[in-house]
Write a structure and sequence with these properties.
With 402 residues, the protein is mainly alpha-helical. The protein has 14 helices and no strands.
Length: 402
């Protein structure tokens, strides 16, 4: 983008970033759901290790995320998101050409770096850096785009595997990042506006938290840990949990398909709300819906469809709250740095959650796994409520969000 060209409008920026997020999520977090089986069948590598590549990637993303937040604070999101496209492309090339399991897992290290630079948290930080305290509507709209990641990429992955095999499917994703994601970032994501930091602002962005801010930060980190754990447990183990309750495979898949539309529908409702309520209100409602849905499942009430719609709606607006609550709590100056820090515990939780669920299922059965999900969700609701009393006084331009 030429320096003298007019800056793209918000809708253009959000739409471009939405496509970027669909491809970033679909080619990384959602990739093993379709490719893991064909990879294990074709290579003979243990399925546990093939799926474990995602856990490695999430751990690498967790390690990188604080530095990513600092980079976005200093330089804006455009160079970071461009790096994500290159890293994801490189990771897929390594996956597609991997002659053995260690090289395959090395590819997931590259994908993990790309995830750390390109999933929701860096995208939210990019919008916060671009639009400051007015970023909330943009973050909400972006999650609506992101909700279609699995809807778009699961069928695409299945089609590619069927037509050209899993290796060429990975190479195709590498090509998409180079010919779609990278040009969108470089062409339509504007450079962060230059600004002269106010006195003490840089120190405020990177400096230590006040005691009240520290309490809010720890509570928010706890919300992200429990939220990431619950979301990943459901994503990985839902079909097995439903089958353990006597639901046929086809019906279990149909029930699971209700989550996506429920997520998108709830996000549309939040968009229609136009930010009239504090983001903590959104977070609290999200946790209540998740608790209600998972409690119905744990209790064995014959209302599986309703339970999953409630869970999906809650998880859908939780994705919005995880981006907007830190902006409201800490203000736009701190936002990119703190989002990067907060991403780490949530990503670690997502990395270990599949193993946690497998242990619960193996040693406690489906009932124990259901109860674990409901208990984690209830604990998260308690943390969300506690955040209301821990709100710090937002300074340096952080007002206007309640």
């Amino acid at each position: 983008m030429r320096s003298d060209a007019p800056a793209p409008g918000r809708l253009t920026v959000i739409s471009a970033l939405g496509v970027v997020e669909i491809l970033a999520w679909g080619s990384s977090f959602y990739l093993p759901a379709v490719l893991a089986g064909p990879i294990a069948d074709n290579t003979g590598w243990p399925l546990t290790w093939v799926v474990g590549g995602l856990s490695i990637g999430l751990l690498v993303a967790a390690i990188a995320s604080p530095r990513v937040g600092i980079a976005i604070h200093r330089h804006g999101g455009r160079p970071v998101l461009a790096s994500a496209a290159l890293l994801l492309a490189a990771g897929h090339v390594v996956l597609g050409l991997a002659p053995n399991l260690p090289v395959f897992l090395a590819g997931w290290v590259l994908l993990g770096l790309g995830m750390g630079c390109g999933l929701y948290d860096p995208a939210f930080a990019t919008l916060g850096r671009l639009y400051g305290a007015e970023a909330r509507p943009a973050i909400t709209t972006l999650t609506l785009w992101g909700g279609f990641a699995s809807t778009v990429c699961w069928p695409l992955s299945a089609f590619l595997v069927e037509q050209v095999g899993w290796r060429h499917a990975c190479l195709a994703y590498a090509g998409l990042h180079l010919v779609v994601t990278l040009p969108l970032v470089l062409g339509l994501i504007p450079k962060a506006p230059a600004r002269k930091p106010a006195k003490g602002e840089e120190h405020h962005a990177n400096g230590p938290l006040t005691p009240r801010e520290r309490r809010a930060y720890r509570l928010m980190a706890g919300v992200l840990v429990l939220g990431g754990t619950v979301m990943t447990l459901v994503s990985v183990h839902l079909i097995a949990l439903l089958q353990a309750r006597g639901v046929a495979l086809a019906a279990a898949v149909s029930y699971g398909a209700l989550i996506g539309p429920a997520q998108v529908g709830a996000r549309i409702v939040e968009m229609a709300n136009k930010g009239r309520h504090h983001p903590l209100w959104t977070l609290t409602v999200a946790m209540k819906l998740v608790v209600l849905g998972l409690s119905i499942l744990a209790a064995g009430v014959p209302a599986v469809g309703l339970a999953l719609v409630l869970y999906g709606a809650g998880n859908g607006i939780y994705s919005i709250a995880r981006g907007t609550v830190p902006l409201a709590l800490f203000g736009p100056v701190r936002y990119p740095v703190l989002v990067g820090r907060l991403a780490r515990p949530g990503l670690i939780a997502q990395a270990v959650a599949p193993s946690l669920g497998a242990v619960a299922l193996t040693y406690g059965g489906a009932d124990a796994a259901y109860c674990l999900l409901a208990a984690l969700a209830l604990a998260n609701l308690v943390l969300a409520i506690a955040l209301w009393g821990a709100r710090p006084d937002v300074v340096d331009g952080g007002g206007g969000l309640g």
